[in-house]
Amino acid sequence: MPGSTIGQLFRLTSFGESHGAAIGGVVDGCPAGLELDLVSVQGELDRRRPGSTPLGTTRNEADRVEWLSGLYATPVPAFAGMTTRSDITLGTPIGFLIRNTDAKSSDYDALKDVYRPGHADRSWEQKFGLRDHRGGGRSSARTTAACVVGGAIARQLLAGAGVRVNAYVSRVGEVHVLRDPRELDLNATWASDVRCPDTEAAALMRRLIEQVRAEGDSIGGMVRCVVQGLPAGLGDPVFDKLDADLAKAMLSINASKGFQIGSGFAAAMMRGSAHNDGYWIGSAGEVDTRTNHSGGTLGGISTGGEIYFDVAFKPPATIAQAQHTVNTEGKEVVLEARGRHDPCVVPRAVPIVEAMACLVLADHWLRQRVARV
Predict the structure, then answer these.
(1) Please, which pLDDT band fits residue 74 given cuts at 50, 70 and 90?
(2) What is the 3 state secondary structure string of 94-123?
(3) Strands, E, within 38-176: which ranges?
(4) Residues 102, 112, 139, 348: is their CA dihedral positive or negative?
(5) Are 327 and 333 in contact, with CB atoms under 8 Å apart?
(6) SS3 of 264, please?
(7) pLDDT reading at 339 higher than 80
(8) How is residue 231 annotated by DSSP?
């Protein structure tokens, strides 16, 4: 269907629904000869999967990747206990599959004829004339598992160029991280159930999420992503700017409602004398800046500096409180939803933000290589 592919040279096409037999994807444009660590790919998917954190949904999918094509030798799924498993990319489409094994469609039977507040039920039906009520079907965040696999492949391609991509939860409700990312150990992100490397803030976030869950409610938050080692020159004017493509990718993630790069919306309250990143000659004779309000892009092109951006996520729409709505017969009803849902999506959104960033950056990195030939 339209809208299921991202990228120009490095492309991911995803398929599948939340309660279908499987979800999966095809990565096209990955260069031949990349030694792909399949265990590492599985590890990134494990960070996103349902049941990966006690603060999320109780749906517990194994999310094991089955490799179908595009790799040298006959790939098989990675299994527990493996520390490494590398295959070589052939330069042909890389197909993969993730089977749905813990779908409980009966949880959604009562919602078949009801428009859930905050969900895409009605807008989907208005566009296509019908909808898959089982967990949202194609509009479900379940489909982001394919994005994480594609992003994990892109990450390994970028790693060869020295590019590092790290994200973390920077806000849950009114609780937010005050420390600069350079003061944080971003490797500690995954030791936290909240996916926040700031220990003090993480404890407050966890307490807030548990409180909201006990109230039968949900809460929003924010994810910050930091990109290091990206070379200058990536991005094209006018409509293929790097920051514009990052924004599109982030706003394509389920429940995302806002994007800002660099100083973002704070720039609206600043003066040019404070916001401009002045140029200086560094100790090695290189041109550098002492500030980075631009967030690593100018004119839509990477500057060679650190890229940082924020993605805001709304509170999950499904809550355990009664909500006023309308059914497909045009009658007003009260909805009391059941099922297995996250009280806050941002902990599980962290690997998705990283994956989408890697997909965009790998695509632009390959486009720059072609442009410079």
Answers:
(1) very low
(2) EEEEEECCCCCHHHHHHHCCECCCCCCHHH
(3) 65-67, 86-88, 94-99, 164-172, 175-176
(4) negative
(5) yes
(6) helix
(7) no
(8) P
DSSP class of residue 327 equals B
Amino acid at 66: E
Q: Tell me the per-residue pLDDT of 197-253, one tens digit each, with 9 for 90 and over.
A: 999 999 999 999 999 999 999 999 999 999 999 999 999 989 999 999 999 999 999
DSSP structure class, residue 314: P
Q: What ranges do the domains of the chain cover?
A: 5-372
CATH class of this structure's domain 5-372: alpha beta
- Residue that has been written with the tokens 């905050």 in this structure: 118
The single-letter code of the amino acid at 249 is: A
Which residue type does 65 have? V
Q: Using the predicted structure, report yes or no on whether residue 372 has a pLDDT greater than 60.
A: yes
| Percent of the chain scoring above 70 in pLDDT | 90
Neighbours of 42 (CB within 10 A): 21
CA distance 36 to 84: 10
- Distance CA(225)–CA(296), nearest Å, equals 12
Chain centroid to CA 287: 33
Order the strands of the 5-6 sheet from edge to edge: 5-6, 11-16, 22-28, 94-99, 65-67
Q: Is 29 left (phi over 0), alpha (psi -120 to 50) or beta?
A: left
pLDDT of res. 252: 96
Q: How far apart are CA 355 and CA 359, in angstroms?
A: 6
Cis peptide before 76 (omega within 30 of 0): no
C-alpha torsion 100→102→103→107, nearest 10: -170
Q: How far is CA 2 from the centre of its chain?
A: 20
Residue 359 has pLDDT above 60, yes or no: yes
How many Å apart are CA 176 and CA 9, to the nearest integer? Answer: 37
Among 72-76, 150-154, 334-338, the range scoring the smallest mean pLDDT is 72-76
Dihedral, CA of residue 359, residue 363, residue 366 and residue 368, to nearest 10 = -130
